Amino acid sequence: MAGGTAPSRARLVKLVVPVLVIAAAGVAFWRSVRSARAAPYSLTASTARRPWRLVVQSPTGPNEPALLLEAPAEVSRELFDQVFKRSMESMRAPELTGIPLVLAGELGRGAQRLPSDALVEMARAAGLEATPPTPRCMVHRRAPEPDARQQVYLALFDSPGLATFRANLAVRLGPSFDAAALPPALFVGLVESPQQRWLPLYLDADKDCLAPITVATDS
């Protein structure tokens, strides 16, 4: 009986050791991915200085933007390339490469309807086209079960103009309008998820920031 035990133990060791090696390699891999995600992201100085522009949208649903602060193509491209290389996942760029300023559903609930030209006028008066927003940090969110594969990467900016614009909208549209529902966040990358799934978007920079976004000197 003892003679049969030794070969059994040897077979067990042969089975267990490869499993442990694979598990350890998996843990090391995901640690490296998390570490890469948390390293600072960057924009070149010339890209960070490029002007942004207001763009009126034609939304088809309540969670789609009616007005967008469109980012220069270089901003979206530089950030997407960094996220894509670090995430180790298949992702796509968003359809709308800009900061949503107000959603169609927010306007529909307001006590006073505002035409597109009035929205643009208010946004310009708040200085949204005058000064590019300042990059702050990268945000990564994952949907809860059973949709945990759905993920989004967003670049959070500092934009006093957006806070002013939405505060003024709250005055015009009444108490049903929540000025905090849209922070100055640019969609960067999506994993198995539609963009409107994440809107409206409430962010807490102290909790949601994954890594800072810096402005690098042009080479």
Helix/strand order, N-terminal first: HEHEEHEHHEEHEHE
How far the N terminus sits from the C terminus, by CA atoms, comes to 73 Å
Give me the oligomer status.
single chain
Largest sheet data:
5 strands, mixed
Average pLDDT level: 87
- Shape, per Cα inertia axes: globular
The whole-angstrom Rg is 23 Å
Q: What is the number of helices?
A: 7
DSSP, total strands? 8
Instruction: Indicate the percent of residues in helices.
Output: 40-55%
Content-based structural category? alpha+beta
Ranges where pLDDT stays below 50 over 5 or more residues in a row are 23-34
Strand order of the largest sheet: 1-8-5-6-7
What portion of residues belong to β-strands?
Answer: 15-25%
What is the domain tally?
Answer: 2
Give the structure's gist in a few sentences.
With 219 residues, this protein is of the alpha+beta class. The chain has two domains: 1-38; 39-216, no CATH class. It is built from seven helices and eight strands, in the order H-E-H-E-E-H-E-H-H-E-E-H-E-H-E.
Q: Layout of SSEs?
A:
Elements lengths: L1 H37 L2 E4 H5 L3 E4 L8 E6 L2 H15 L10 E6 H6 L6 H10 L8 E9 L8 E8 L1 H14 L11 E7 L13 H4 E8 L3
Task: Kindly describe this structure.
With 219 residues, the protein is an alpha+beta fold. The chain has two domains: 1-38; 39-216, no CATH class. The chain has helices spanning 2-38, 45-49, 73-87, 104-109, 116-125, 160-173, 205-208; strands at 41-44, 53-56, 65-70, 98-103, 134-142, 151-158, 185-191, 209-216. A five-stranded mixed sheet has the order 1-8-5-6-7. The chain has a three-stranded antiparallel sheet with strand order 2-3-4. The protein is globular, with a radius of gyration of 23 Å. 32% of the residues are buried.
